[in-house]
Automatic annotation (TrEMBL):
One cellular component term from this protein's GO annotations in UniProt: mitochondrial inner membrane
Presence of the UniProt keyword Mitochondrion in the record: yes
UniProt keyword Transport, yes or no: yes
BP GO annotations: malate-aspartate shuttle
Localization per record: Mitochondrion inner membrane
Coiled-coil residue spans: none
Keyword set, alphabetical order: Membrane, Mitochondrion, Mitochondrion inner membrane, Phosphoprotein, Repeat, Symport, Transmembrane, Transmembrane helix, Transport
A molecular function (GO) term: symporter activity
Lipid bilayer topology: Multi-pass membrane protein
Organism per entry: Anopheles albimanus
Name of the protein: Mitochondrial glutamate carrier 2
Amino acid sequence: MASNSNASAAAVSNNRQFALLPKIVNGGIAGIIGVSCVFPLDLVKTRLQNQQIGANGEKMYNSMLDCFKKTYRSEGYFGMYRGSAVNILLITPEKAIKLAANDFFRHHLTTPNGSLPITRQMLAGGLAGLCQIIITTPMELLKIQMQDAGRVAAQAKQSGNVVPKVSATSIALELIRAKGISGLYKGTGATMLRDVSFSIVYFPLFATLNALGPRREDGSNEAVFWCSFLSGCAAGSMAALFVNPFDVIKTRLQALKKAEGEMQFNGVIDCVGKTMKHEGIKAFFKGGLCRMIVIAPLFGIAQMVYFLGVAEALLVATMKH
């Protein structure tokens, strides 16, 4: 059964021929739809992960729902989409790289007899995750500053201070002026840990689940669209929970502005040590439910659009006209 599914996955990979333009369009469509649907939950996830417990156990948000209510009450509907512009702008190349790179490596790692062992699937996924960090790191860095700005401003207001409003552009320019282009790559190590491990889990799991569903009737041997969607949701949520500790570390390292009294971190090991010492192991699973809810539809939509061949259909229709 496993060898059949591997051969099936290899056949799909071979048939795609790695056409770049359709992958970019598919990735863009999937990313924009997905981000637009789940961004408020992603914002809540970021604020929960960055929130540190005070000396007396005090904290701003008590739960995912509490964070959502307080954010909506203080910042309104559009406040729930702070940082979405940079995410939507960069999600197209990020998704294109991730999905296309995985296809590319699966194609080249397929054995001569057409099978793709699980170890090679994991290697292909890990390499795809490694490729995407060139886009993911600056995108996540800027997005996190915008998402967390409301939390930092609210805590500053309680202390009688005022935090000036910022934009993704001003943050990017300030980082480039101070540290050059490398300033946009703060937290690269943590991002690599998260994205590589996520892809190692996600892609083989998705391929396995997707191979179990019914096939299309067009002779392509590809899964029906709802199977790709559900497989993407299930694999995405499981992989998201698995790598949540890395996501917490990455989020904390990339938060450039802390609320008054919050700890600063000097790298992955320092962040792990301080977080464990002051907040315990539970801190590494902060925002875990939010992240699962965010990632599930994001990757479900991405895989559905990718396997439906939306871009290919649009390009064929354009050529006919």
